[in-house]
């Protein structure tokens, strides 16, 4: 029996995770994969119920699970909390404590969505890249961190630390080269080598690691240039390897190449069970209104099948169903435009995907 920890979280998290779970249940039955789902509380929902964003029961559930399906965390209700007690801390602790250092964010334009993006068709057509974001280092976790008195006695000073070790860079670089080997064999490592010491080590270690992968074409790019090239010529990218904060920012930017941030799934892999979540946030403004696009969560469920359960045909079945439902013209508000497309809600998208998988 395979146990999937289900962590809906806040905002639109519960409604999109419900659709992804529906799809997993269906695919599990169809392919004879015995799955059990165990729900845990996390984020703001957990703060409200037990005062902490990652209660011990949720941690134990995740730690013992085969994979984790995650919704989203955060919202205005918890905005005044200090960073170490906010809903997001629940997610960050899971990533760090489970050793999930490799975050895969595939950016693929489904052809029917070529006009959904605010970017021109000729720029985004056939975009197919993957942002590989280092997930347990950098500014998110570096010490020292915090707010204290300014050394000159005037006001306060805030500190975040951007640190990386050789070992942390090497292991993510290896994953990057391995992923590139399965794709178009091109890896772009993104840094800020002209300013940051951490980037100097990053570039050196990535270059050294490249010698183990002679078939892969490696290039380096400064992060500011990369943010421009992603819009200017996104087809030039295959795998984009970068540190935690740069990856956070670049993947939101790259999401628009796929039409909407509501289309982008992710897999966080490493030592512990894989964690699968859409890259978007909790979108409190549309929560509970059946407006959220569940496709990022559903495509994350496909990644769960692929990377944690090693069930490629189940993953491919989900992805093919997403293509067919989009081809048939069904759209949530984030990807809808006036014209022949049919505007549908969150739950209906889940039902359409299940129906489409059943038909094959
Ligand atoms: C993401 C999110 C998270 C991050 C937040 C919710 C902490 O923006 O997964 O991209 O910054 O990593
Ligand atoms: Mg983000």
Notes on the protein architecture:
With 360 residues, this protein is of the alpha/beta class. It folds into two domains: 1-102 and 266-360, 3-Layer(aba) Sandwich (Isopropylmalate Dehydrogenase), CATH 3.40.718; 117-258, Isopropylmalate Dehydrogenase, CATH 3.40.718.10. Helices cover 40% and strands 20% of the residues. The strands form three sheets. It has a ten-stranded mixed sheet, sandwiched between helices. Strands 6-7 form a two-stranded antiparallel ribbon. A two-stranded parallel ribbon has the order 13-14. Helix 1 crosses helix 10 and helix 8 packs parallel to helix 9. The relative contact order is 0.17. The mean pLDDT is 97.
Number of domains: 2
Order of helices and strands: EHEHHEHEHEEEHEHEHEHEEHHEEH
Helical segment count: 12
> What hetero molecules are in the model?
3-isopropylmalic acid, magnesium ion
CATH class descriptor of the largest domain:
Alpha Beta
| Count of strand segments | 14
**CATH topology (fold) name of the largest domain:** Isopropylmalate Dehydrogenase
Name the CATH superfamily classification of the largest domain.
Isopropylmalate Dehydrogenase
Compute the gyration radius: what is it?
Answer: 20 Å
User: What distance lies between the first and last C-alpha atoms, to the nearest angstrom?
Assistant: 25 Å
Structural category is alpha/beta
Largest sheet: 10 strands, mixed
Strand composition percent: 15-25%
The CATH architecture of the largest domain would be 3-Layer(aba) Sandwich
Helix content: 40-55%
**Biggest β-sheet: strands ordered side by side in the sheet:** 2-1-3-12-11-4-5-10-8-9
Low-confidence stretches: none
Averaged pLDDT = 97
Cα shape:
globular
């Amino acid at each position: 029996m395979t146990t999937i920890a289900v962590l809906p979280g806040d905002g639109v998290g519960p409604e999109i995770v419900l659709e992804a779970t529906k799809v997993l249940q269906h695919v599990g039955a169809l392919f004879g994969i015995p799955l059990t789902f165990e729900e845990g509380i996390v984020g703001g929902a957990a703060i409200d119920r037990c005062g902490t964003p990652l209660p011990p029961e949720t941690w134990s559930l995740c730690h013992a699970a085969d994979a984790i399906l995650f919704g989203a965390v955060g919202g205005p209700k918890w905005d005044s909390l200090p960073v170490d007690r906010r809903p997001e801390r629940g997610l960050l602790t899971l990533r760090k404590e489970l050793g999930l250092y490799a975050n895969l964010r595939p950016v693929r334009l489904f052809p029917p969505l070529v006009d959904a993006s605010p970017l021109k068709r000729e720029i985004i057509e056939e975009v197919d890249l993957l942002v590989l974001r280092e997930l347990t280092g950098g500014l998110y976790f570096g010490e020292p961190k915090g707010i204290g008195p300014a050394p000159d006695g005037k006001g306060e000073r805030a500190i975040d630390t951007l640190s990386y070790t050789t070992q942390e860079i090497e292991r993510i670089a290896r994953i990057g080269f391995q992923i590139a080997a399965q794709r178009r064999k091109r890896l772009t490592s993104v840094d800020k080598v002209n300013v940051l010491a951490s980037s100097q080590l990053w570039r050196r270690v990535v270059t050294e690691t490249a010698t183990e992968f002679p078939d892969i074409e490696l290039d380096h790019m400064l992060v500011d240039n990369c943010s421009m090239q992603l819009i200017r010529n996104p087809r030039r990218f295959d795998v984009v390897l970068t540190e935690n904060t740069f990856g956070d920012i670049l993947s939101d930017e790259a999401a628009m190449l796929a039409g909407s941030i509501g289309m982008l799934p992710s897999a966080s892999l490493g030592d512990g069970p894989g964690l699968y979540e859409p890259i978007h946030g909790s979108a409190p403004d549309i929560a509970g209104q059946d407006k959220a696009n569940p496709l990022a969560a559903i495509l994350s469920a496909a990644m769960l099948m692929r990377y944690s359960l090693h069930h490629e045909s189940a993953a491919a079945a989900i992805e093919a169903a997403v293509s067919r439902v989009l081809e048939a013209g069904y759209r949530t508000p984030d990807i809808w435009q006036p014209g022949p497309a049919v505007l549908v809600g969150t739950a209906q998208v889940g039902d359409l995907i299940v129906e489409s998988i059943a038909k094959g």
